[in-house]
């Protein structure tokens, strides 16, 4: 079967910094796939390579079997690759509605050169866009803030508007860079549900970077783990999180992990207990 995405031997260097070293993995069509790893592991870098923001120093990227390594970001969006950003990238002075409309920009076919037929075509097109945008607003429960200025919204809502904008492009593959960062428990739960639904109901293949292991365990089909720019594990979430290499990457030395429970104050050494 053709993969939705294949990352093949990708390396990325910034001067002396090796952000990625020979990273390979493949994402199946329809999968909800997570990328995890400690800070600075290279997670955003790999997403930037997929979206076209960074060009790998070595290696290749395939989207539905097609080599996209050399394509510019604006050539990837029309193929059906959408994304959100780790640091919000909304137009703060624009309304929620207009921010979402921006997401459809590349889908606008009409321009001012089409002459006499412009108005008719443009009106029909505008209606189609509005309909699609309304569908997304309903899906993400953004009705009550549709006219609000994006910059005035809570952080959690702004993350949701950014997801709406990425969805407006109608991507087949959506890249989410920490969609739940900085959210409270309830907001995270909502966001996790939207992500599952856009995967299942809208049929989008999802590649998500997320630090919350509970969420990753709950909703991902498979996980890849990066550490210092290298892939250290890949597989189903439970197996990956039980992997000693992964524990070591997150918690330091493996020995520490194994002896940690004995060090807990609630479980003092026997000698201390008798004293
Ligand atoms: N544009 C850049 N210029 C120079 N170095 C960069 C650039 N982007 C990333 N790096 C470096 O590449 C490495 C990986 O960074 P990256 O942002 O991909 O990590 P991350 O896993 O997303 O981390 P975090 O969890 O903190 O978001 C880091 O050492 C980072 O400093
Ligand atoms: Mg990052």
Tags for this model:
Rossmann fold, 2 domains, six-stranded mixed β-sheet, four-stranded antiparallel β-sheet, 10 strands, globular, disordered C terminus, binds magnesium ion
Kindly summarize this structure in a few lines.
This protein is an alpha/beta fold and about 280 residues long. About 40% of the residues lie in helices and about 20% in strands.
Strand content: 15-25%
Counting structural domains, the number is: 2
Please report the total strand number as a whole number.
10
What is the global morphology? globular
Percent range of helical residues: 25-40%
Tally of separate helices: 11
Assembly classification = single chain
What hetero molecules are in the model?
Answer: adenosine-5'-triphosphate, magnesium ion
The biggest beta sheet is recorded as: 6 strands, mixed
Mean pLDDT: 86
Enumerate the strands of the largest sheet in spatial order, edge to edge or round the barrel: 6-7-8-3-9-10
CATH architecture of the largest domain: 3-Layer(aba) Sandwich
CATH class of the largest domain: Alpha Beta
CATH topology of the largest domain: Rossmann fold
Characterization of the model:
The chain is globular. The longest helix is centred in the middle third of the chain and has 22 residues, at 118-139. The strands form 2 sheets. A 6-stranded mixed β-sheet has the order 6-7-8-3-9-10, with helices on both faces. A 4-stranded antiparallel β-sheet has the order 2-1-4-5, covered by helices on one side. It is built from 11 helices and 10 strands. It folds into 2 domains: 1-80 and 171-275, 3-Layer(aba) Sandwich (Rossmann fold); 94-170, no CATH class. It is an alpha/beta fold and 275 residues long. The protein binds adenosine-5'-triphosphate (ATP) and magnesium ion. This is ABC transporter ATP-binding protein. GO terms for molecular function: ATP binding; ATP hydrolysis activity.
